[in-house]
Design goal:
- By secondary structure, the chain is mainly alpha-helical.
- It has one domain.
- The chain contains five helices and no strands.
- Helix 1 runs antiparallel to helix 2, helix 1 runs antiparallel to helix 5 and helix 3 runs antiparallel to helix 5.
- It starts with a helix and ends with a helix.
Length: 140
């Protein structure tokens, strides 16, 4: 193979990789935006959509991992918050008593929910920065 043909093959391979990374970036950016717009009940499904985004490019994979960390923490926090709300409703309706183990677990669930929400917010900043960097790099 001539040096010129080898150079052409290398250029084509680089272009194909960039094209894949661009498609993956666009898919990830769209999935993250859908997650951000999703109502609380749809956050878990929107997280699954982000998890399903192909990420063969190392930078896209790192961004997806960062985003999933933020989303998983947030979804878990929202779930715990709903558990606390149901528990308080059960207490008010006298379906459980204050000394019931389910009632005793409520403050811990609330604390964990707050911790996870903070973690999710911090991680979402990293997610957004990584996705924005990829969008700028690939013109998406």
């Amino acid at each position: 193979m001539s040096p010129r043909a080898a150079s052409l093959l290398v250029l084509l391979a680089v272009a194909a990789c960039a094209s894949t990374a661009k498609r993956e970036t666009a898919s990830l950016a769209e999935a993250v935006e859908r997650w951000q717009r999703a109502d609380v009940p749809q956050k878990a499904a929107a997280t699954a959509d982000v998890r399903a985004v192909g990420a063969t490019d190392a930078e896209v994979a790192a961004a997806r991992t960062a985003c999933l960390g933020a989303m998983d923490a947030t979804v878990r926090a929202l779930d715990l918050k709903q558990q606390v709300e149901r528990g308080l409703a059960d207490l008010e309706a006298k379906r459980i008593t204050p000394d019931d183990p389910a009632a005793a677990a409520l403050p811990g669930k609330l604390d964990e929910s707050e911790r996870l929400l903070k973690e999710g917010r911090r991680a979402m900043t990293d997610c957004e920065q990584k996705v924005m960097s990829l969008r700028m790099k690939y013109g998406v």
